[in-house]
Amino acid sequence: MYHLAANQIDEKLQYKLLSGAIVPRPIGWITSLNKETGVINLAPFSFTSGAGQKMPLISVAILRKEDFSIKDTARNLLNHPEGVINIVSKTFIDKMNATAAKVPADVSELTLADIKILDSNSVTVPGVHDALIRLEVKVYQYILIRDRDEHIITDMFILEVTDYHLDESVYDIENGYILYDGLAPVARLAGNLYTDITEPYILERPE
C-alpha cells in the first residue's frame, strides 16, 4: 500500500486525492441571486452533503479561486441569503456542465444552455425547471475556513431547507421515499469523471 504524508505533497495532488477518494459526491446545482444586478447565477458544487437530522440542513463548501477571491455563488449567498439546490439528473447533465464555465459575475449561466427557471415558494430565488427535485434554502450558518497563512480558502455554508419540490415520477408520496430510477441522479468523481447510481441493494443494520 502506498503511503503519502499530506504535508509532503503539493496542493494539486492533495486535491486529486481528496476528490478521487471522497466519492461519489452529490452535485449541488445552486441558483442564487446577485442582489446588485438582479442576475440569477447557477453553478454546480460537488462538496455538498447533508448536515443535520433534527433540522433539514445541507452543507456546501465553496472553494475560493486560485487568487483567494470569492466565487459568485458564495458572494450572492452572503448578500442575499437564499437559494435553490437543484438535484442533477442524467437527462440534463450537459446543461449542468455548461454552467461550470467561468463567466463574469454579471452574466447569467442560464443563458449558456437555454435553461428555464420557475418561481419558488418561500425564497425569491427561482429554481431550475428541468430539476425533478428542488430544495429551497436559506443560509443558516456561514463559516470561513482559512489556511495556516490566514488566507481564506473555503466559504462553508450551512443551508436550511424551507421547501421541497418533488416531481411525481421521483417520489412515493404514500411511503415518503425518493424513487431513484426516476430521478437518475448524477454524482461527481475526480476531474471530469461522473457516474450514475448502479443497482441499489439493502443492508439491514444490526440492532
Structural description of this entry:
This protein has 207 residues and is mainly beta. The chain is built from four helices and 14 strands. It has helices spanning 11-21, 72-79, 93-98, 180-183; strands at residues 25-26, 28-33, 40-45, 48-50, 57-63, 82-87, 117-118, 127-128, 133-146, 152-166, 171-172, 177-178, 186-188, 194-196. Strands 3-2-6-9-10-5-4 form a seven-stranded antiparallel beta sheet, covered by helices on one side. A three-stranded antiparallel beta sheet has the order 1-13-14, with no helix packed on it. A two-stranded antiparallel sheet has the order 7-8. Strand 9 and strand 10 form a beta hairpin. It starts with 10 loop residues before the first helix and ends in an 11-residue tail after the last strand. The mean pLDDT is 95.
